[in-house]
Structures are given as structure tokens and as C-alpha cells.
Amino acid sequence: MSSGPATVVLLCPNALQSPRKLLEAPDRIVVETRDPAMARHALTTMAVALFVCDLGTDGADFAALAAAGHAANPAMPILFFGGRSSESRARQTLADAGVEGGFFPKPFSALAVRKLVTQKLDAALAAGAGVARPAGAAGGGPAPDAAAAAAEIGADGPDPERFEILGIAGKGGTGTVYRARSRLLGVEVAVKIIDRALLADPDVMAAFKDEARITMQLSHPNILRHYSFQTYRGTPYIVMELVRGTALRDAILRNGALSTLTACQVLAQCASALGYAHMNNVIHKDVKPENIFIAETGELKIIDFGAAVLNDVRAQTSGDIVGTPEYMCPEQLRGDPVGPGADIYALGVMTYLMLVGCFPFPPDTTVDDLLAGLRPDFSALSPELAAVLDRATAFDPAFRYASVSEFAQDAIRACHCESVMFNPFAPIEIIPAQLPDAPSFQPPLPVGYAVPNETPPEQPSAPSQPTEIPRSEDGSTVVLPVVIAAGSPPADRPPESDPPSAAEEAPAHDGGAFDDPTAPNYENPPDDPTAPDYENPPDDPAAPGYHAAPDDPTAPDYGDYADDPTMPVYGPAQGN
């Protein structure tokens, strides 16, 4: 068995509905064709590790293809895909040919397809399925070197006087992205080129030009930059920013689920980018982990605006259904006009996927189920976070959040990661979830309240921790909308310098009860407004000495409260 990349042959007649992106990985080469005769040629002349075939391909003899592929590559499994009604046909074809394989239905469940493909490939490679790519084989995937990449492009690549091809960065359903170096500036860039077989397809070309036109209007640190749209010898291409890192999809597959901190960091940067796009009347329409890229520097980039539309008259009359069903809102599935709510819906589903590692729908969910009103099930999360995601994915867009930033803020608060909001552009660290990682198992502190230190004035006090969640002795969380001292002083406090006399001692109050009005020495309680010497209480706005309450927005000097975003001097809180 060769140590090279595994070769996957894909037969699919419709490039816009191809599962190619779901098949790609750094250790695979995907060879795609729309012609059954070309697929047969590849299966019989190449060392193929996996054959993936659309049962909707016109003119294809699937039994003959299976037999020919099995004869040339005995350990090669076959995966058929199509409508759910075609599953029995697929399994019968596999049984008749005596071939190991499987079936996945349309619309594709991204994670389910990737797991099935990985499972079948691993088993095939262990059984000795071919993984070498014969010389001259066409197809996508990473080329071994710049010469191979340049040879694959041939004369249809970018202007060789302007760009030097260095290799292949990735492969999409309609084109290939190459690493290149600008000969003029000496910097590395990414160049996206449409597959030559699709150049005559007007829909593909229109979408390609739309992607360039829309993204070149956007300039945001979390959106992949597009520099120019050019043509060389009749072949159009887009010059883009080159970013090295990993797709969020791969991070989820590798870790199963992500920590709440990682998920909230991703959510914050996605919300920032999408909010900016919405302000510029751009709707992404295909927000999903495959299109979220985390650079080696920890910076997030939203990529692939190929499905994006301008939120204008053209978008309201297009009627196109483009996207990934698991993340598509009902109006998008119907082909109706969409607005920012479509991206908010997708981001809500993606948030759940990051935290739990699976979709909030049953595995056998169909588009008809979603259109009939099937609701996502967020019961694996806390009630607070589930309520936020329920609103983000409401069936009627009128009941969703009005803005993506509002959704992100509520979700981050429900996850108890408020610190992310103070530094949303901090480098993202991919941390796997540790069970129980609690997407939100602890009730949050009421918004707009701090928890000041309540140690009596005469006791040495620890530094105040505004963001710490107080806990009782049994470990349960205590939510304090208004801070009220309760119980006796801590047992381990330092002894008082002047112990009380025996006559003053009260056994139930340790000689100095500050929270019991019946105690004989109850002379200066800090929390009883009826006390005669109650002159400067910290928590009564009506008191004459109430001049610096840290947790009352109505206080006259409430001007430097670090964690109230409604205040004019709102700034990053120290340690929050």
C-alpha cells in the first residue's frame, strides 16, 4: 500500500449539488467527473480507494460501474447517494456486485457523510485499497509540488507573467484554489480558478462573478479579503488573501465538541463579521463550519461568499435555493427572499454543533420535515442557552433576533463567557470540551449587577471580584440581584484586637453580631436601614450617604461601572 494520498473518484452530474467538499481532506485526492464513461475509465486505470456515485446520473449503468471498479480495485468500497427512495436500489446494486459500500441521502448531512466516508476509507486502506495516484490522473486535491499544480492548470491558469503557481490550497465544487506568488510584489496569495468544464455554464459563471463583486466591497478583519477579479486567455480567476490554518469543521470532527470559551470566541468573531456584512446589505446564506477558517494566528476568517446575495431587489426575486440544508432557515429552504435572519439561524445551529458535537435535529430529518415546522432540539443545553438558540432559530424570521450581535451577546452571557465580549478579537484557541464542560450548567449572574465584597468594615477584606460567581458552603451557586449579608462572619477571620467582655457576650452571636437586630450590641449594622446610625449603607439608594453605589445605575456618580454596556464610559473591565 502506497503512503501517498488516497484517491476518491466522484461521479456527479450537477456541480452545484456535488458533495465534493464533504469528501475532501489533506490526505485525499478527489477526482470528479460528470461523465459515466470517464468515471469507468478512472476506476479501471487508477488505484482508487473509494468510489462515490450519484444515483441520479443519466445514462449510467451502476451495476457495470460497480463490477468494473471492483475488478480493478477489489478492496474499494462504493458509496451511492440520492433521494431516500433510492436507498434500496443502491443496496441491491452493492449486493449484486458483491461490493462493500453504503448510501447517504440527499440533502446531505455534512457530519454524517464525512464520518461515513472516513469509516469506509479507513477500512479500505487497511484492506489494501489503492491509494497511489497514477501519473497523469486528473482531479483535485493537494498536488505534491508546484510543478504538478502548474501542470494541472495548463494554459488555463492565471497570467504566468504576474503569478507563479506554488501548489494547490484547496478544491471546491466549482473550482480550485491555488497558492501563488505575485511576481510584482513578491507576496503569496490565493488564486481561485473555475474548472474548465464549467466555464460554459452561465449559472456557475454568474455565481463566480457575484462572489467577486460582493466580497470586494467588504473590508473586515474576519472576512477573507478578495483583491481582484482578472481574466487570462478567457479564464476568469479571483486573487485572494492566503491564510494558513484549519477549518472549524475539522476542529469539530477532531475534538467532537469544543469548549464554551472556544465556541464563544468563534461566535463573537463570526457575529462581528456578519454584522458588518449585514450593514453593507450582504447576506452570506451559507454560514457553516466548512466556511469558517481559523488561521494559525488564532484569527477567524469567514470564507466562500459564493452563495451570498445583496439584500436588495435582486435578492428578493432570485428564487434560488443555495446552501446547506442543516443550516438553512425555512424561508431559504422554500426559495423565498432572505435577510439577516438566515445567517442568524445558521449561526444558532452552528453554535449548538460546536458545543455538543452534533446537529439539533434527528439523523433522519428531511427537508420536508424542516419545512413542516420541525424545531431544533436544544435540550442538551441549559434552559438559558436553549432559550437563546430557540429564538435565533425561530421558524418565523420576525421572531428571531433583530441583529446577529444581539444574538451573540445573549448566547455568550448564557455561557458565562462575558470576558469574550470585552476582547472579541483575541486569538482563538481550539480547546476540546471537557465533560461536563457545561455549555451553561450554572445560572448566570443578573445582567448589570456586581457582587461587591461584604466583609464587615472592621475585618480584613479580600480584593473584590466583580465577575466571580458566589457559591454557598454546599457548592451551589448563589444569585444576588441585591447583595444582602447573611449568616455569621467567616469562622477563619482574624481575631478581633479587643475581645468583648463576658457581660457583653451573647452565645448565639459570638459577642459581635452585625446581622441580628436582637443582639445587645447591635449598634452599627451595615445592612439595616432602620438602625439609628445607618448613615452610609452601601445598598440603599434612599440613604443620604448613598454616594458611590457600585451596582445601582441610578446613583449620581454611576459613571465608571465597568460591566454595564449601556453606560457612556463603558470600557474593558479589569480582570473581567
Radius of gyration: 31 Å
CATH architecture of the largest domain: Orthogonal Bundle
Instruction: Classify the helix fraction into a percent range.
Output: 25-40%
Work out the number of β strands.
15
Give the percentage of residues in beta strands. 5-15%
CATH superfamily of the largest domain: Transferase(Phosphotransferase) domain 1
CATH C-level name of the largest domain? Mainly Alpha
Number of DSSP helical runs: 16
| Unreliable spans | 131-144, 313-320, 437-497, 499-515, 521-526, 534-538, 545-550, 557-576
The termini sit apart by: 54 Å
How many distinct domains?
4
Main sheet: strand order: 2-1-3-4-5
> Quick one: overall form?
globular
Average pLDDT across residues?
74
Indicate the CATH topology of the largest domain: Transferase(Phosphotransferase), domain 1
Category by helix and strand content: alpha/beta
> Largest beta sheet, briefly?
5 strands, parallel
